[in-house]
């Protein structure tokens, strides 16, 4: 598809974030399973449920484009998840692994926040009011998840520091 107008760029980026969210639905349970902190496990499991809803919202956002809801492999998310897989396989004490899991999860959240920020602005400019509303819900959840991870990190990082 030619990127010769903003509508095509919006559709392409929507396909990308659709893939990203679907990849996360598969990755988050693995991260939660490796987490030792109960608070971190809960944060990841809670965000998994939100992510499932985000997939549905992104799918619904395609309606205004008049094109099919089809994912396009998000290479950025693929890379972030690959990095997280490597972290999960590292030889590390539980607290340090938790700190690393938080770091990986926050990289994911920041990528999503940036993507949804762009999509929301483009949806507004294109007059896709329903898509904008749906995508704003997603960005709010991503920002809340990032904030929650920062809060969990305060405790986890202090525990990991004790192993230095």
Walk me through the topology.
Elements: H1 6-34, H2 38-61, H3 75-89, H4 94-126, H5 129-161
What is the helix fraction of residues, given as a range? over 70%
Q: CATH homologous superfamily - what is it?
A: Ferritin, core subunit, four-helix bundle
Envelope shape: elongated
CATH topology: Ferritin
Separation, N- and C-terminal Cα atoms = 52 Å
| Average pLDDT reading | 95
Strand content: under 5%
Helical segment count: 5
Rg over CA atoms: 17 Å
Which structural class do you get from the secondary structure elements? Answer: mainly alpha
What is the H-and-E element order? HHHHH
Would you give an account of this structure?
- With 164 residues, the chain is an all-alpha fold.
- The protein has a single domain, classed as Ferritin.
- The chain is 82% helix and 0% strand.
- The protein is built from 5 helices and no strands.
- It has helices at residues 6-34, 38-61, 75-89, 94-126, 129-161.
- The radius of gyration is 17 Å and the shape is elongated.
- The chain starts with 5 loop residues before the first helix and ends with a helix.
Provide key terms for this protein.
single chain; 164 residues; mainly alpha; Ferritin; 5 helices; 82% helix
Offer a quick outline of the entry.
The chain has one domain (about 5-65, about 75-160): Ferritin, CATH 1.20.1260.10. About 80% of the residues lie in helices and about 0% in strands. The protein contains 5 helices and no strands.
């Amino acid at each position: 598809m030619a990127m010769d107008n903003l509508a095509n760029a919006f559709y392409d980026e929507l396909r990308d974030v659709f893939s990203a969210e679907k990849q996360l639905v598969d990755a988050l349970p693995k991260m939660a399973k490796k987490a030792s902190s109960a608070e971190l496990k809960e944060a990841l499991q809670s965000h998994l449920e939100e992510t499932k809803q985000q997939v549905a919202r992104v799918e619904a956002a395609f309606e205004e484009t008049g094109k099919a809801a089809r994912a396009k492999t998000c290479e950025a998310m693929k890379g972030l998840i690959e990095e997280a897989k490597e972290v999960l396989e590292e030889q590390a004490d539980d607290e340090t692994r938790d700190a690393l899991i938080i770091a990986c999860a926050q990289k994911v959240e920041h990528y999503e926040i940036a993507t949804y920020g762009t999509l929301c602005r483009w949806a507004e400019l294109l007059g896709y009011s329903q898509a904008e509303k749906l995508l704003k819900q997603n960005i709010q959840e991503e920002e809340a998840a990032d904030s929650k991870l920062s809060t969990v990190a305060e405790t986890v990082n202090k525990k990991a520091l004790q192993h230095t």
